[in-house]
TrEMBL record, chains A, B:
One of its GO terms (biological process) is cell wall organization. It is a multi-pass membrane protein. GO terms for cellular component: plasma membrane. This is CASP-like protein. Coiled coil: none annotated. It is found in: Cell membrane. NCBIfam families: A_tha_TIGR01569. Belongs to the Casparian strip membrane proteins (CASP) family. The chain crosses the membrane at residues 47-72, 84-108, 134-156.
């Protein structure tokens, strides 16, 4: 179960990184006020998102052997402790990048009147759709990581 | 140790909520393009921040008795499991609000050229300073919560 959830989290994290990393839209027309291209590296937050999600995906791949060891030897505390501590750290990292990207995506969709930031999704529809799905995938990874930490804690408690 | 860290996290979370909740600045002059008032409820993300940080602070206060029970009875797994699972959930909540508020504060400081969002901190200096310190306080709470989860895991593993 731990192993399968971990595989799911790997898929979600890498999908999020890849979707965000390939987001790029050039507009076919000219307007007076807007630039003509939007890509993930226009936004520092989205760059952070791609790097963090790739890191989380890489960590989860490397954690698979430890998960196997924890399943084979359910009474050894070492591998479980190792997994729960690193899972918590990477959960925090994944949550931080997912939430900050979500804040930017929300702004892109709705804008903000008081600071005079206009919504850009009318212009950059495809870009917005792609970054939104990356954010959704990253939240799937976050939920799976929370489940992994809770399951590891329960397994440690039962011992 | 668990108890003292928890008290620190309570202070950090409530300070973050209070600092953000009282952020409000009205400009003494008129300009053509900008509104004249900025407060935390101009931004959905900051509203979310105040609510979540208050929730996290409230949970941490309620968790203090369980922390005492876990210290008095170090061999009982129940209270420790209860604490580690809820700590993980509230850690995720706190990280999400801290990171999304940080993304908005970063935009307020630096703006974003490609989407034509201008930095507003030149106009709203006090507002920016206050929201920035709220974000710093919330990250202190996040770090303390990570430490609490790791310490609970180690205590569970030692049993």
């Amino acid at each position: 179960m731990d192993f399968i959830l971990r595989l799911g989290a790997v898929a979600a994290a890498l999908a999020a990184a890849a979707t965000m990393g390939t987001s790029d839209q050039t507009l076919p027309f000219f307007t007076q006020f807007f630039q003509f291209e939007a890509s993930y590296d226009s936004f520092t937050t989205f760059q952070f998102f791609v790097i963090t999600m790739a890191l989380v995906g890489g960590y989860l791949v490397l954690s698979l052997p430890f998960s196997v060891v924890a399943i084979i030897r359910p009474h050894a505390a070492g591998p479980r402790l190792f997994l729960i501590i690193l899972d918590t750290v990477f959960l925090t990292l994944a949550t931080a990048s997912a939430a900050s990207a979500a804040a930017i995506v929300y702004l892109a969709h709705n804008g903000n009147q008081d600071s005079n930031w206009l919504a850009i999704c009318n212009q950059f529809g495809d870009f917005c759709a792609q970054t939104s799905s990356a954010v959704v995938a990253s939240f799937v990874a976050v939920v799976v990581l929370v489940l992994l930490v809770v399951m590891s804690a329960l397994a440690l408690g039962k011992r």
